[in-house]
Amino acid sequence: MPTPESALFLARKPTVPPTFDGVDYNDTPRLKQAQDAIIREQWVRSMMARLVREELGKCYFREGVNHLEKCGRLRDRYFELLKESKVKGYLFEQQNYVPKES
Q1: Is residue 52 within 8 Å of residue 75, measured between CB atoms?
Q2: pTM for the predicted model, two decimal places
Q3: How confident is the model at residue 1 (pLDDT cuts 50, 70, 90)?
């Protein structure tokens, strides 16, 4: 069951997708919302990797010498999350933005 979100949390939650698609760079509030959404998504990915790493450590400790067989699924998941878990910021993406052509 989902937990209820407070009004303060919902007020600060970004309303734009985590990309610069369709963002007017002269509209400062929308630009800041896009930047915040990108940073927020990067932090979510980083924290997901941290949680999987903690579970992997518990599995290694719990399983002992059998950790290669028993913890393989967590290890593979952690390696997949590790590729994109670094918080890079939004500046490179913002300065080198190429609009998508449809």
Answers
A1: no
A2: 0.73
A3: very low
